[in-house]
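Bug #2210: C-alpha cell dump truncated for AraC family transcriptional regulator?
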Amino acid sequence: MPRGQAHLIGSSREAVQESAGNLPICPGLAPGEPVKLGHSGRTAQTRLICGFFACHDTLMNPVLLGLPCIFKADLRNDPHSPWFEWTLGLAAAEAAEWSAGSAVMLARLSELLFVAAVRGFIDALPTDRKGWLAGVGDRFVGLALAILHGKPAHGWTIEQLAQKTGLSPAALVQRFTHLLGEPPLQYLARLRVEIAAQKLANDTVAVGRDDAGRL
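Reproduced locally. Full output below:
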C-alpha cells in the first residue's frame, strides 16, 4: 500500500472488526525493535509481519505516484522465489529474536524486498501502460531518466540525451513523451523544481536576491 491508506486485515469481510488501537501492545525494548500486537480471540492463531517505509512528503515522488493504491507482490512465482523466501524467513527470525544489529538487518532486508516488489510490478506491466514506472521499464526512456536523475544540474540538450540513449532526437522525444506525457527537458525542469523544494524544506539552502533584485 504505497500511500498508507487505512485498511482492514481479516479472514473474511464478515469477521468482527477490531481497531488496532484497541489491541494489547507490547512495545519494543530497544530502539527499532518491532512492536507486537496481540489478540485474545479463540480462533486459530495467525501471525502477520508488517512494516512500513517513511519518506519525505515531496511534490514529485514518481515511484509512489506510479504505483496503484494497493498491489500484491507474487514472489512465489518469481524466478528468484527461493531467494525471496529466504529473505522473508531471515526477516521474520530477526523480528522474533531481537539481538544486536537486528534493526540494521531489518532495514536493509526491507529495502531489498521493496525493490524486488516494485521491480516485479514494473516487469508485469502491460505493453500499453504509460507513466513513470513504464518509462523506467523502457530500454531507452529508462536510460534517459537515469541520466537526468543522475545529473539534474547539467545543461542537458536533446541531442546529448539522444546520443547517450542511442536514439535520434526526434525518436527520443516521441518515445519519452508517449510514456511520460511530457518531453525530456520539460521533465527535467520539473525535476529541478522538486529538488529545490526538497532543499528548501530541509533548510539546506537559502533564498535571496542579487543586486538586480532577482531571486
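Output looks complete on our side. Residues 132-201 form one domain. Marking as cannot-reproduce; reopen if the truncation happens again.
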